[in-house]
Amino acid sequence: MGANELLAELAAVGRNPGGGYTRLAWDGATMTLREWFVGAAAGLGLEVSEDGNGNQVAWWGAGLPGNRALLLGSHLDSVPDGGPLDGPLGVASALAALAELKASGWAPSRPIAVANFSDEEGGRFGVACLGSRLATGAITPDAALSLRDDDGTSLGEVMAARGRDPRAAGVASWLDDVEYYVELHVEQGRWLAPNDAAVGVASAIWPHGRYRFDFCGQGNHAGATAMADRHDPMLAYAATVLAARELATGARATFGRVRVGPGSTNSIPSRVTAWLDARADAEPALEALVAGITARAQWAAAEDGTTVTVKAESTTGAVEFDHALRHRIAGLLDAPVLPTGAGHDAGILAAKLPTAMLFVRNPTGVSHAPEESAEPADIDAGVAALTDVIRELG
Ligand code: GLV
Ligand code: MN
Ligand code: MN
Questions:
Q1: What atom in ligand 1 is closest to the CA of residue 368?
Q2: CA distance linking residue 342 with residue 124, whole number of Å
Q3: Bridge partners (DSSP) listed for residue 205
């Protein structure tokens, strides 16, 4: 089966009425996708295992002696109301490429594996790439398992409720048997279309992070409290959003999630919690950006007799993909090389082993939204490129 057909099998899973997808870690939709992964892999004669972090891995030639494995894949979870391809395209393309290679009679010289990494988006517990961070030791099991979702349920409790043993979470030994990781992904941003290329190769990932801002003030009556007497935390929040917009020159700063307490139309809020996603082309620039936004938040809060505290919840340093591997792949495919502002499991694995990424043209560049798309012919071109890479490295 080709990647377009495999993706069509997923079209109804976690789909919202508006056409977007909500597939959060360990929710009903991702459980269905886990079962789908096992079935699709078994249909290709691959052996599926799952590590203590919920990462599923389908193996071809697991017993082949000598060389360590070539790992492919991506993730099947999404952001809330995301698109159909961020994640699933990489998993479906890897399975389609293996189907094609098997049908052609090609035999690998090393084990080839396809991963479905758990909770790449961090849409439920707030930290991105939890599955790959746990597997590589980039986050401790204690820190990860105690993260809570919006209902107050911890990751450990959620995993236990899904029949997993949280005590098994942590550094995954199967990664020691992997030599290369190559993740194919839908392009996020628009560079390939104007440059007339269906497939590109990643050079680097911008450093990025998620920061929680807690603004606190005095709740009070919306009608009875004179404007001059208020300690309204919403004002400092609003000023901080504008400051982020102003300070993110050549960088990215986004407040995409906010919670207001108590959340009553006729009450002045007592607290506003908002999450900043910040990214820049270098770590000092990212640090300066976050420090600048924090300073403006503190200044605005002090003006109103309110307070703000800021906590980094998830940070990822700059990633420069393995030079030799990316030049080898770009040369093989005659494909352009481009950086990305998006985060990926490949960025986490890059700290441990040579890692590369292929991007498939996204005509509008829209991602993390229902409009995310790729032309079927470009999806086929991505599979063809990945197939060439597997022949080269496998
Ligand atoms: C994941 O897609 C991210 O860039 O946050
Ligand atoms: Mn994403
Ligand atoms: Mn992704």
A1: 2
A2: 18
A3: 319, 340
pTM of the entire structure? 0.97
CA distances (Å), origin 264, targets 116, 306, 350, 355, 374? 41, 19, 46, 49, 42
* Cβ contact 124:85 at 8 Å: no
Q: Is the CB of 128 under 6 A from ligand 1?
A: yes
Query: Cβ(61) to ligand 1 under 6 A?
Result: no
Alpha carbon distance 171, 169 (integer Å): 7
pLDDT at 63: 81
pLDDT tens digit string along 350-381?
Answer: 999 999 999 999 999 999 999 999 999 999 99
Query: Residue 176, SS3?
Result: helix
- Alpha-carbon distance 95 to 383, whole Å? 9
Closest of 239, 250, 249, 252 to residue 295, by C-alpha: 239
pLDDT band at 65 (very low <50, low <70, confident <90, very high): confident
Q: State which H helix or E strand residue 7 sits in.
A: helix 3-9
What gap in Å lies between CA 74 and CA 115, rounded to an integer? 6
Other beta carbons within 10 angstroms of residue 393's beta carbon come to 22
First-residue to last-residue Cα distance in the chain = 21
Percent of the chain with pLDDT over 70: 100
Nearest-angstrom CA–CA distance, 83 and 59: 28
236-290: pLDDT as tens digits:
999 999 999 999 999 999 999 999 999 999 999 999 999 999 999 999 999 999 9
CA-closest residue to ligand 1 atom 3: 343
- Contacts with 371 (C-beta within 8 Å, 6 or more apart), sequence order: 83, 364
Spacing, Cα 78 to ligand 2 middle (Å): 7
